[in-house]
Design brief:
304 residues; alpha/beta; four-stranded mixed beta sheet; 12 helices; 39% helix; globular
């Protein structure tokens, strides 16, 4: 099997049909589907198991951990009975472009197979009825560990990673709490000196609706909301999780990233002005000027 599609579900019956149809229409067909269902009560597992679009592909449905969406996805990553050359996160309510997998695999052909690598992309934003309402952010700075520590640049629904990256992710203690599987995936792969490619060409429709657990991060209002969240201290417990997880794979960090990680740990406990010294030495940065201003203020206020 070349590609394992990792689909995490919970009461997704309303939009599953369109997503499963989009999987069936992929121009790259060597894939199988692995589903972790977190206790759906709307017949989601039955819909998947019996969907005619999935004929010709193996479908495995597993019981989820019921510890949040991040742990639901990671339970599939940690499952060593799932083995493939590449792994693709999939949300239950999106619509993939026909060439989503093929486009990602074309980039992976440029990457040595033993190097952890992550592909991600922009998305088109659609409403509940499938109408286009916008685009996700067009980030231009190179993906890297010093960005990943303080910002996720792409939704997990766009992410595809290779087996070397999966092996890396499986090295952390599986009982550690991690809220955001996609952010952690970006952090871990970049920390180990892996390759991360952000495709500025959208590869899917990302549905925005009332049940979205995360939703889009697009637009000035969303940017302001993110900065407010940073300043409110919401990021601090998430960073606690990432620090704990990174400590289990410190032997995988490159020397440069190890130094940045050390400064990150120290700035979180340092008072002014020492915290700013550690921030400068670390190289930590976000993708926008507003985001970097928020990062500086959040550092001084000890909110990260």
């Amino acid at each position: 099997m070349s590609v394992a599609i990792l689909l995490a579900t919970y009461n997704g019956a309303s939009f599953l049909d369109e997503q499963l149809e989009s999987l069936a229409h992929q121009t790259y067909s060597d894939w199988n589907l692995f589903v972790s269902d977190d206790g759906s009560t709307d017949g989601t597992p039955d819909i998947i198991q019996n969907h005619p679009a999935l004929s010709g592909h193996d479908v495995t449905i597993l019981k989820g951990p019921q510890k949040g969406f991040g742990q639901n996805f990671l339970s599939l990553v940690y499952n060593e009975s799932i083995s493939a050359k590449y792994y693709a996160y999939a949300d239950q309510d999106d619509i993939w472009d026909d060439n989503k997998i093929e486009r990602a695999l074309a980039w992976f052909e440029t990457v040595p197979h033993n190097v952890p690598a992550l592909y991600c992309s922009r998305t088109r934003l659609i409403d509940e009825d499938g109408f286009l309402i916008g685009m996700s952010n067009h980030f231009t700075k190179q993906p890297c560990f010093t960005n990943a520590l303080v910002q996720n640049i792409a939704g997990g629904n766009t992410m595809i990673f290779n087996h070397a990256a999966c092996t890396l992710l499986r090295q952390i203690k599986h009982d550690l709490p991690i809220h955001f599987h996609d952010w952690w995936t970006y952090i871990a792969i970049s920390a180990a000196g892996g390759m991360v490619f952000f495709d500025t060409e959208p590869t899917m429709d990302y549905r925005q609706h009332a049940k979205n657990l995360i939703g889009s991060n697009n637009g000035w209002n969303a940017r302001i909301v993110r900065v407010k969240r940073l300043l409110s201290g919401d990021m601090k417990p998430w960073n606690d999780e990432h620090v704990a997880a990174l400590r289990t794979i410190t032997h995988q960090l490159t020397p440069r990233n190890h130094k940045a990680f050390d400064h990150f740990i120290k700035l979180r406990g340092a008072s002014f002005p020492r915290c700013l010294w550690h921030l400068g030495r670390s190289g930590l940065h976000r993708q926008t000027k507003l985001g970097n201003i928020g990062l500086i203020i959040g550092t001084v206020l000890r909110k990260i």
